[in-house]
């Protein structure tokens, strides 16, 4: 084992700091000495968590393939295994620890295999301590700020086997030009910003991802123009709070609505974005959404709770009434828009009355889908210290009750398309029934229909024959594109 001294371990205290240093935009170029190191070798990447992690994994794949690695078929025959992890709830972390245990023995069978762990768990002090003590099979731990260092870590291990733990707990830079291997031939994630400064009291993300910092408009627009020229049809703009885009620019005023408008003019056929924050979603964004047909009529707008008391304790900075007002504006600007959300139940201090308020809000908005969670305490966040007298049974029963209501909304949202003709971007054969194709409508509804595999990657007109809770069933009308 080599010495760890040239590397850094994560620090929660540092991760919390915001001194507002100016963001460095670093334009990456892989060094010649790393190219070829992976020739004849394979890698496997296991990704957990949000779209931010999926996009990061595409960059990790891009780097590894630039080094010469190719994708492995299974755990057993890979030379590098990387876990890109999520820290949002305890169960996300437990899954990773379970997997690490399961693959421990692989290293005995395949000496020289490198195991690495990155992503949000790597940014957590306590987790890294646990890995150091108990998970000796992990060779490299790197964080969300230093993905671009991976080739260097691997090269260093090939030169001299040692364990590398290198995690930065600082506000964060922006690394441009990382090679990215898109998972989908027609749909691409496009990061527009990194980090989060909201500090919702339950959430670990501001600690694991650093400060809110925006990519420059020119870099984003160029990326999207390149995607268009390569035949991509859909982009999803990514950020933990996309509506805060541009707020960190020092001498320019350029906001999310400006970006959205400029991107709508690039010729990309479908634009989506996630995640929006109800406080920062402004009128000009709502207006732009209604103006350009290539901005899709779906918005994921996490509300978290319908109780003003709980929203305040969560530090969400809006009220139930303000949320409802934004929904009304959205429905006016984008008729027929589909709205989905995230909700946490059993946050510390949530009483029956508060939970009822959440149910009431769900009924009023008519969400067409939601991710719902039982609150999970995260070490280092303020809410982890709040008393929570609810029993596990009470927490679960709230979740079940909420899910029943959400599922009704899901079904109603699908039902409104029965008999309609919708444009579906075909993803591929359906998992459940390979004789069927599956794809998404502008409203982000899943449609299954019989069709030829040659339609994958195209937009087709499908007449909806029947709505189910989780998908629509239809027949193809004609090939529109
Ligand atoms: N930036 C996005 C997404 C954050 S993570 C946003 O602000 O909405 C995705 C969802 O996980 C959150 O919306 C929230 O509902 C949930 N979540 C975050 N921290 C959690 C915690 N400690 N326990 C349970 N759910 C949590
Ligand atoms: Fe977490 Fe809140 Fe930031 Fe979303 S906005 S990532 S919930 S702190
Ligand atoms: Fe998870 Fe980190 Fe995303 S905690 S949800 S992977 S930002």
Report on this structure.
The protein is an alpha/beta fold. It folds into 3 domains: 4-166, Methylthiotransferase, N-terminal domain (Rossmann fold, 3-Layer(aba) Sandwich); 180-412, tm_1862 like domain (pyruvate-formate lyase- activating enzyme, Alpha-Beta Horseshoe), CATH 3.80.30; 421-480, Beta Barrel (OB fold (Dihydrolipoamide Acetyltransferase, E2P)). The chain is built from 14 helices and 21 strands. The strands form 6 sheets. Strands 3-2-4-5-6-7 form a 6-stranded parallel β-sheet, sandwiched between helices. Strand 12, helix 9 and strand 13 (270-274) form a beta-alpha-beta unit. Helix 9 (256-264) runs parallel beside helix 10 (283-291), helix 10 (283-291) runs parallel beside helix 12 and helix 13 packs parallel to helix 14. The chain is globular, with a radius of gyration of 23 Å. It starts with 11 loop residues before the first helix and ends with a strand. The mean pLDDT is 95. The site of iron/sulfur cluster has 10 residues, from helix 7.
